[in-house]
């Protein structure tokens, strides 16, 4: 998962996960003052994916790509964040199965 946040109750996350025996999906979750909204689970193949959170001013867009060139984006979200926010990656295992996660090419660029 990629996470960008101003506070614990003010964040945007982009998560790739496995559904119970039905495949893999990507979900964008937006939390604003304890009200969470999800922009749906988009099915994706069981192969590595690029994930991207892009902020421009008060707008943040989440997207994913198979090749890092052609992107599928969620609807941009309006945020009221200061110039500096926290960002990070996470790997969470909610099952009893072994988890293998890898993060490559993690970069942060300033406008």
Global outline = globular
**Continuous helix count:** 0
Q: Reading side by side through the largest sheet, how are the strands ordered?
A: 4-3-2-1-9
As residue ranges, the low-confidence spans are: none
N-to-C SSE string, H for helix and E for strand: EEEEEEEEE
Instruction: Please estimate the helix content.
Output: under 10%
Class of secondary structure makeup? mainly beta
Mean pLDDT level: 85
Distance between the termini: 22 Å
Per DSSP, what share of the residues sits in E-state strands of 2 or more residues?
A: over 45%
Q: How many runs of DSSP E, i.e. beta strands?
A: 9
Radius of gyration: 14 Å
Description of the structure:
This protein has strands at 2-7, 10-19, 23-32, 35-44, 50-56, 59-65, 72-73, 77-78, 86-89. With 111 residues, it is mostly beta strands. The protein has a five-stranded antiparallel sheet, with no helix packed on it. Strand 2 (10-19) and strand 3 (23-32) form a beta hairpin. The model has no long low-confidence stretch (mean pLDDT 85).
């Amino acid at each position: 998962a990629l996470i960008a946040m101003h506070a614990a109750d003010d964040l945007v996350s982009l998560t790739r996960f496995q559904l119970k025996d039905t495949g893999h999906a990507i979900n964008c979750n937006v939390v604003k003052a304890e009200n969470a909204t999800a922009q749906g689970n988009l099915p994706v193949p069981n192969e590595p994916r690029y994930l991207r959170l892009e902020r421009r001013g008060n707008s943040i867009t989440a997207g994913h790509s198979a090749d890092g060139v052609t992107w599928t984006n969620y609807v941009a979200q309006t945020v009221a964040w200061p110039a500096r926010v926290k960002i990070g990656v996470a790997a969470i295992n909610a099952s009893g199965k072994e988890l293998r996660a890898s993060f490559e090419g993690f970069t942060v660029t300033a406008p």
